[in-house]
Amino acid sequence: MWAAAAAATVLVLAGCASPGPQVADPGEAAAETAAVSSPAEGAYAFGQEATWPDGVKVRVSKPTVFKPGEYAAISDKSVKNFVAVDITLTNGSSAAVEASNIVVRATSGDREAEAVFDGDRSTFPSSRVMPGKSLKWRQAFGKPGSDFLLTVDWGYSGQPVTFE
Questions:
Q1: In sequence order, which residues have a C-beta less than 8 Å from that of residue 86 and are 6 or more positions away?
Q2: Residues 144, 159: Cα–Cα separation, whole Å
Q3: pTM to 2 decimal places
Q4: Coil vs helix vs strand at 76
Q5: Angle at CA 65, nearest 5°, toward 28 and 21?
Q6: Predicted confidence (pLDDT) per residue in 21-76, tens digit
Q7: Sheet containing 161-163, strands listed edge to edge, beginning at the edge strand earlier in sequence
């Protein structure tokens, strides 16, 4: 009897565990299974949408070549290649969210890919997003290596999402 009660308790607690972000593919529904397992285990393909348990969603476009302006804030002058992504934060929760709570980091090769601030051409979010609304911005990064991985964490949830 104790074993059955313990097993039931484990099943109930497992059901309460917060699942990681869920993926949505903007392409055909039939390809969803293949898209979820693409790039690498636990990573999402650029263009997919991930949803955290609170309903907040993020989509990151495929990186495009970016040319920083004359006054762009770049600390590592040795980096000569840059990319930009469009990031869309959608508030699927029932309360307003602060876009500044999103943490975006990137790596390229064996180095951290430095975020580039370049006025309106590459910026960081600071707006409040109401329920059912979205905020889109462009963010650029130095790309010292041949690959590019971008990790997004929503409000330090401990459930980061990596796009590649």
A1: 60, 61, 136, 137, 138
A2: 26
A3: 0.75
A4: coil
A5: 40
A6: 555 544 433 333 333 334 556 799 999 999 999 999 999 999 999 999 999 999 88
A7: 43-44, 161-163, 149-154, 102-108, 111-112
